[in-house]
Automatic annotation (TrEMBL):
NR LBD domain ranges (all copies): 275-507
Source organism: Phyllotreta striolata (Striped flea beetle)
The keyword Cell inner membrane appears for this protein: no
Pfam family, one: Hormone_recep
Predominant location category: nucleus
Positions bound to a phospholipid derivative: K488
Protein name: Nuclear hormone receptor FTZ-F1
Lineage: Eukaryota, Metazoa, Ecdysozoa, Arthropoda, Hexapoda
Keyword Phosphoprotein among record annotations: no
Database matches in InterPro entries: NHR-like_dom_sf, NR5-like, Nucl_hrmn_rcpt_lig-bd, Nuclear_hrmn_rcpt, Znf_hrmn_rcpt, Znf_NHR/GATA
Alphabetically ordered keywords of this record: Activator, DNA-binding, Metal-binding, Nucleus, Receptor, Transcription, Transcription regulation, Zinc, Zinc-finger
DNA sequence: CATCAAGGCCAT
DNA sequence: ATGGCCTTGATG
């Protein structure tokens, strides 16, 4: 996807590896120049390394005299530092890797990541060589005798950790083909194009709550929401996170904390897991809200770092876009859905994405104390609730209304994930080729949720049907949000070339 | 002891 | 301000 992400040298005559050690020669994802090693999170050239360091260390603030979308390449990289730095962030260079204390030498927490990335690339290269050998009629096993995991098609789905554009993967590639239906791209290649910050690393922000807490009656969502703070320019605050790093004084603003304490005590105790069906247990176990928060954090930080003022609507679209990517990523790894053909997957997603976004926001707000507002690094306030409303402030009442009803029903994480599945696996979507499978999945989840509500919440009369009755309400919020976004888009005031807009368009066809 | 990513230096 | 080359120092 990204512009400079090429592997060369592996296809030369004898399968030799010309210069670089691993036979991997890549171009700097920022400017396309020759890569000199891993710098601040990924392989970049020497000059972009230096540029990134200077910018972050000296807290430089650039402005773009054009449209903030200057093309960056080797010859023009000096012309617009603003866009160059933007691109650095977009491709995933890590602010945290610049040390506030300027300590030299040593290693940081990205070391292991670099190592894994090397291994991944090496394997990719081997696969290519193997494939080339096979094509030429050579005997593959001569070169790589039966090593498990080195078959040509093994490990195609290795999760890529670095070198991935964050959100604007679709917007930032300068010379990519016009618009290869973003959904299909996302579905087909999420592994190589999409990567929310790796989940395995220590998350930049810790979410205390574990997704399982019943939303005890306590005033979780409704009342005074805390604000999370992305803002800080003080060294004192830097020291907060990152204790594993060699140099704990990362230069990036680190403080970004939700006061995330899932209402563990209180009225609603977690239903004992023995009663819960394995299906639901697996669903819940697969939820990764840390990653969700992490990517939100990274995006907000990257988008506002080093900028005086950002277009908040545009920022919101970017966040929604990112959320959408995570939806797709979640879906394509989910039971039932993953067995479908891409065409069917696309149809289901096109039909349910906005509902799922709204539902997800309710979940984040109710179960993870996502605040309604946050202060960005540059001091601007971002209305996070607006994300759940898909940009329509007037939907707030309706949204809160639904939230209250959900709270009354003691809507918990299991309910949430089942409903999400039911939204996704909608057997009524037209044109599904494998409707049977979709219906099967839908009914299994439905059944599981029914049993769950009956066994775990006997005190709530008819919880299952009451939950189901809320679906049209969620849908109406989603529909109005979609319309709003679509109008904004037609005005030209929404970012183009995003998965979000692709989704909006797909439905109108 | 070799590696290699981070910071520093300095001619341009 | 840029970018090529140098020094540093934790890691394995």
């Amino acid at each position: 996807m990204g512009a400079g992400y090429q592997i060369a040298g592996s296809m030369t005559a004898m399968g030799e590896t010309p210069d670089s050690k691993y036979g991997i020669e890549e171009l700097c994802p920022v400017c396309g120049d020759k890569v000199s090693g891993y710098h601040y999170g990924l392989l970049t050239c020497e000059s972009c390394k230096g540029f990134f360091k200077r910018t972050v260390q000296n807290k430089k603030v650039y402005t773009c005299v054009a449209e903030r979308s200057c093309h960056i390449d080797k010859t023009q990289r000096k012309r617009c530092p603003f866009c160059r730095f933007q691109k650095c962030l977009e491709v995933g260079m890590k602010l945290e890797a610049v040390r506030a204390d300027r300590m030299r030498g040593g290693r940081n927490k990205f070391g292991p990541m670099y190592k894994r990335d090397r291994a991944r690339k090496l394997q990719l290269m081997r696969q290519r060589q193997l494939a080339a050998q096979t094509l030429r009629g050579g005997v593959a096993s001569d070169m790589y005798p039966n090593q498990p995991g080195t078959s040509p098609f093994a490990n195609i789905h290795i999760k890529q950790e670095i070198q991935i554009p964050q959100v604007s993967s679709l917007t930032s590639s300068p010379d990519s083909s016009p618009s290869p239906i973003a959904v299909a791209v996302a579905l087909g290649q999420v592994n190589s194009t999409l990567n929310q910050p790796a989940s395995n690393q220590q998350p930049a922000l810790q979410i205390v709550g574990i997704p399982s807490g019943g939303s005890g009656g306590g005033g979780g969502g409704g009342g005074g929401h805390s604000s999370m703070v992305v803002n800080n320019q003080d060294n004192k605050l830097w020291a907060q996170a990152n204790s594993t790093t060699t140099s704990p004084h990362s230069l990036s603003p680190k403080v970004f904390q939700f006061e995330t304490v899932v209402p563990a005590g209180g009225g609603g105790t977690v239903p004992s897991s023995s009663k819960v069906s394995p299906l639901i247990r697996d669903f819940v176990a697969a939820i990764d809200d840390r990653e969700w928060h992490n990517s939100l954090y990274t995006l907000l930080q990257n988008q506002t770092y080093n900028q005086c003022e950002v277009d908040l609507f545009e920022l919101m679209c970017k966040v929604l876009d990112q959320n959408l990517f995570s939806q797709v990523d979640w879906a394509r790894n989910s039971i039932f859905f993953k067995d479908l053909k891409v065409d069917d997957q696309m149809k289901l997603l096109q039909h349910s994405w906005s509902d799922m976004l709204v539902l997800d926001h309710m979940h984040q707000r109710m179960h993870n104390n996502l605040p309604d507002e946050t202060t960005l690094h540059n001091g601007q306030k971002l209305d996070l609730l607006n994300l759940g409303l898909l940009g329509v402030p007037s939907l707030a009442d309706h949204f809160n209304d639904i939230t209250v009803k959900l709270q009354d029903l003691k809507f918990d994480v299991s309910d949430y994930i089942c409903i999400k599945f039911m939204l996704l696996l909608n057997p009524d979507v037209r044109g599904i080729t494998n409707r049977k499978h979709v219906l099967e999945g839908y009914e299994q989840v439905q059944q599981a949720l029914l049993e769950y509500t009956v066994t775990c919440y006997p005190q709530i009369q008819d919880k299952f049907h009451k939950l189901q009755q809320l679906l049209p309400e969620i849908h109406s919020v989603a529909v109005r949000g979609e319309e709003h976004l679509y109008h904004k888009h037609c005005n030209g005031s929404a970012p183009t070339q995003t998965l979000l807009m692709e989704m909006l368009h797909a439905k109108r066809k």
